[in-house]
Amino acid sequence: MKRVLMVSAAVLLAACSQGDGDAESGDDFAARVGAGQGEATPAPTGTVAPPESTMARGSAVPEGADPMGLEKLGNIARVDLGPRDGGCTFSLNAQELLLAGAPDDETVKGKGVVRIGGELINLTAENGGLGAIYAGPTMTADGVTVKVVPAAGNDAMRTADLYVAADGKQRKFAGGQWACG
Fold first, then answer.
1. How far apart are CA 160 and CA 18, in angstroms?
2. What CA–CA distances, in Å, run from 6 to 3, 10, 21, 102?
3. 115: burial class by Cβ within 10 Å (0-12, 13-18, 19+)?
4. Are the C-beta atoms of 120 and 55 separated by less than 8 Å?
5. Rounded CA separation 125/123 (Å)
6. What's the rounded Cα separation, in Å, for the pair 102 and 100?
């Protein structure tokens, strides 16, 4: 029985390793897609975001900007939310509008960031600790307040609404996602 299994395995392995004679080699494929040893294809170029657009430098709505007009966060590579043990993101239609985080310490208020008028704005949570972020924080900066109201429960991803208040007005971003981790 053992001998039959060994012979069967060898036959199967040989059958699988034989390709048809028309198969393209790795070198042929590389040459066809332009990565062969032929002419060098220049690397595609893109734009690099200016450093000032990737970090939140202020805690106030820029002069002349509409505080109700939250924009997609975009590149937040240099945003510093300080020490944190976790955080959450509010997104609507696959566009992130708010990032928030906090340490697991109720005496330390969480931090967040939104983009208004093309600039990243630092926010500070009203209540401290990571639990306050997960539950849906109210966060403020000079000229704007944002509040997340997630669906009940403890799931890592819940539906949520985001409210923005400024100048006696309020705007609701309904049916978004509050994703925490």
1. 55
2. 5, 6, 27, 59
3. buried
4. yes
5. 7
6. 7
How far is Cα 54 from Cα 52, in angstroms, rounded to an integer? 6
Element (H, E) at 9: helix 2-17
What contacts 163, CB < 8 A, 6 or more positions away? 146, 147, 148, 149, 170, 171, 172, 173
Q: Which two tokens stand for residue 153?
A: 């429960």
The pTM of this model reads 0.70
Please give the chain's pLDDT, 181 residues, in tens.
455 444 444 444 444 444 455 555 556 555 554 444 444 434 444 445 555 566 677 788 999 999 999 999 999 988 989 999 999 999 999 999 999 999 999 999 999 999 999 999 999 999 999 999 999 999 999 999 999 999 999 899 999 999 999 999 999 999 999 999 9
